[in-house]
Amino acid sequence: MTEDRIDDGIDNWRNSDAFTPAEKIALEYSEFMQFEPDRIDAAFYERLREQYTESEIVELGVFIGFNVGYHTFFRTLDFYPMFTPDGRLVSQEESRRIYGETPHSHLSADIQQAVADASAAGD
What we know:
By secondary structure, the protein is mainly α.
């Protein structure tokens, strides 16, 4: 797994050639679990079964559920990423300055501009 592939998976997995059909449906499963759980219906499970066994679907669902849960928990604590988009370890205060009131993907123009501004200011 490379940083470029992870970045591609964040915002472009549907159109990317870097992911297999199995990986794409796992990413779709993840999005649905977090944002639209009602879309995970019998027809979606049939699509999952084209790529995964029953036990793999359960394992994937538990893993996704755990990750969605702990990210939700971190939001309730107002917890910010520990690392800047360029990989520096930072305090929660500096992270808040970089990411703003609502953290976004480090691929977004707003975050890229915030990093450039912080670098120019010597932060």
